[in-house]
Amino acid sequence: MRTFAYSRADSVDHAAHRTMPHAAFVAGGTTLLDLIKLDVLKPENVVDINALPLKRVERLDDGRLKIGALVTNTDLAHHPEVKSHYPVLSEALLAGASTQLRNMATTAGNVMQRTRCPYYRDPAAKCNRREPGSGCDAIDGINRMHAVLGGSDACIAVHPSDMCVGIAAIGATLTLQGPDGEREVDFADFHRLPGDTPHIEHDLADGELITAITLDAPLANAGSHYLKLRDRASYEFALASCAAQVVLDGDTIREARLALGGVATKPWRCSDAEAALVGQVADKASFERAADIALKDAQACEHNGYKIPLARQAVVRALRNAARGETPASETQESQA
Amino acid sequence: MNDMTRPDFDKPRVVGQRTPRIDGEFKLTGRAGYTGELHVDGMLYGYPVSATIANGVLESLDLDAARAMPGVVDIFHHGHFEALHRSPNSMAHGDMVNEVRLPFEDERIYYHGQYVALVVAETFEQARAAAQRVVAHYREERGAVVSLLQTEAEGTLQESAGSSRGDPEAAFGGAEVKVDSTYHIAAESHLQMEMHATLAEWRDAGKRLVVHESTQGVFFQRNAMARVFGLAQENLEVISHYVGSGFGNKLFMWPHSVATAVAARMIGRPVKVVLPRQQDMTSGGNRPASRQRIRLGADRSGKLTSVIHDSTTETSLVHQYVDTCGSATPSFYACDNVSTSQRVLEVNHGTPCPMRAPGEVSGIFALETAMDELAVALEMDPVELRLKNNAEQDPASGLPWSSKHLDECLTSAAKRFGWEQRNPAVGSMRDGDEIIGYGMASCTWSAGRQPCEARVELRADGSLFAACGTQDIGTGTYTIVAQAVAELTGAELSRIEVKLGETSLPAGPLSGGSMATATVLPAVAAAVRDALDAIKEVAVGSGGAFEGSDADALSAEAGGLTDGERRVSFEEILETSKLSSVNGQGSAAPGDERSEYAFRSFGAHFVEVRIDPEISRVRVARVVSSIDIGRAINPPTARNQVEGGIVMGVGMGLLEKLDYDPRDARLINANVADYIVPTHADAPEIDVELLDYPDFKHNEFGGRGVGEIGLTGVASAIANAIYHATGKRHRDLPITIEALLASS
């Protein structure tokens, strides 16, 4: 671990206007401190933002829900507004990490979560994301956990968040505060595909701070489900996950929202599959067609090919449960473990 | 030779009764000092720098930046280290080690994680920060052997690890029904809670070495370090009061202990090293991967006519470790034609070492899965097949069993499980989205015993003290020693103090091989009897509490002596005779019974898996086990060992796998997030029955040890249950989601 200068920000303006080289904001610290100890991240300045007034959850007049950046994952998962209007987000949050981590982790911190690629976390390995231009040891290495969607020749690291998959299926706007003032970014545009520049992970300029995430108004009369598939029952990153919302008109799908996790380099909204579902009968054949569309561009490496059929299974089951408006007991007992 | 029929143990008062851990309060309140937590004045912290390649040469170390870091005191490496000697590495002489190569001995790199330097600094954080500044220049070489699982190489035959009786090849050739299958098991990590830790302190101007080590064998550690440093054993003390488990990787010394002691001597201050988890996993032992071929021959009635078990396991390039997979096979089933063979293959990994039920747990997975395949081929119930081939005496030695109740384990566990409700047709049992699979397997572990010494004091303050140089690795040894003392003296448990884990105490055994209980308690009993003889002499002597009585007429009762009419407490007897204490020495060892009987524990596991095939999810829902370990000295801690073994078996069956990069043999999942073990949410509903048949032929307490047997057979029962659910025979562990998908 390298030494760094530590300071506390006492206002958003103060935090965002501070121009420091090699600076990092810290909230829950569940990713940052871990990676500093591994010598992967090497900030020279760490700015603690926990004292900032960004812990509110408020329903806006237009029906949207504004979530302060520092709301913890635990508080958000159990917030009455989230539980009643965005259950898919609550399920996604509770499927992530452990209770202890969720108590520390924050909403914006979760958006900024780094990949769990083992080569990224090992300074002795080649990693374009950690060290631009050094190469990628994952593409020809042990890539069982890696992405089948959104990868490039430079990087196939998965975005590991569960929460973000839930948000992707809801739709949201990020509020960013920077030295030049406040701006808003569509959640779907915030995370970048790796392309040739995997070290640029998101649309956040130097000194900019996420202050809030505002969820789109809830989809009326939707059934929803977040399904996370993994080796063990708890405390593991997704091998494939799916957030689904379905609005039915009788047996017919009137609207659908679909996002994938564990298989893509960013939280993966499946707009084409959503469009294909609209107007279809809510049955297995429709769900399988949607899954085919969602995975049609998937590309596998040596060890992650299984993720393509697994993600298809996640889509079909999540859509089925969302359409039914209920989840069998055999699945719910794990969703909150 | 022990008197096997001592009346004391027919109706024990404390032994066999539920007894809370006497060290529980210390652990709960944080007063139990584990090695990694200890602090002594002037202590420095060491942090090893480990190789980032698995095969090549360390050409140079650039230490300038690290040396300039705050708090750095010294950096040790190949060019800056003491000249030492290797340990002879002898089990018989008690100086076996887990890796014979000394730290920094040469500049060749044999495995990823091998230590190339040790940074010593004033604080742990300073040592770690400086260690990250050490720049090592390697010449990496191609040709690393990545894994037994990624090569066709056969390895070297170990003649002494094989066995043969009858003519198994001919019998197999002529068998009416045959199974011929090959099984692979990935390398596993012990992942014990407490990482390896050493605190070394030299005293008396560098003539005497005191080592605190998280170890399963203080005497083995002492003897090995004495050889390495050329010290007389009397000048070396090893202490290990509390151990956060080991599962076998703390049985013998590792190079970090040597590096720590050298650093402490060269600097002249105590040094502590706690391995970070990554190094604990790369360089602190693993269960080696195995490849096993099993051939079973049987007649149409299900009677085994041939068992051929050929195994290969990994070892490292710097130490030969043989994980003998076939060691239980010759004793498992009644069959006239049985052979086992064992090979080892050198790979570029950190050295493997014993891990809970070493060898046998791998072997039993293969053998018991093959038995399930045979049952399918015979269209026979797998329980019936096992009962049919039950060995009434040990077929390997020809000796009668000291005590064996496998048949009752099979029938009792089957009944509690509800085996009779199993529809044998594949995939026939469903519940909603899930297919239910029922599977079973037998389990076994040898019942060994070692020589042991112990000491007991009866004190005038009313306390009793028992001491033995064995260890409590979290299994409850402190408590069962106190139970033995309480049993023989009638004293209250709260009055009994137990000291373990020091080489200054009477020589005790390794905490390994499920042998500690049967080894230690008879020695403690002998010491108690010696102390009772001593206090009787005091009591009947001049001025004594029973002056003039016949010592033989006195017996122990409720923490005192009685002549049948009058009871006087030990403290009063000692007070009366103006003594502070009396002392008892005891020793015990296995005797002639070892050539008269065969000793082995058996049991059975029944497993229910639930598979949701449309989302490729498999979970173990329920395990019902019946295990015969003789008498359980403390039933809750004994049952806890079996339950823990079952959970570990879920990991072995479905989750655990050390991942070595196929290009360069680097271990890439050396952390507890990427190396997957069961969580609480993965632990099934577990119902363990311990049959209660004291084995007095094994020792006077009737207990055979319980640390390992619970793990054996579990992975096979899971694989067999998955077969029942899906019709797919999984012969490679762990059974991953990929494997499930491939079979759907």
TrEMBL record, chain A:
PROSITE patterns: FAD_PCMH. InterPro entries: CO_DH_flav_C, CO_DH_flav_C_dom_sf, Diverse_Substr_Oxidored, FAD-bd_PCMH, FAD-bd_PCMH-like_sf, FAD-bd_PCMH_sub1, FAD-bd_PCMH_sub2, Mopterin_DH_FAD-bd. Residues 1-220 form the FAD-binding PCMH-type domain. Signal peptide: none annotated. Keywords: FAD, Flavoprotein. This is Xanthine dehydrogenase. It comes from Salinicola acroporae.
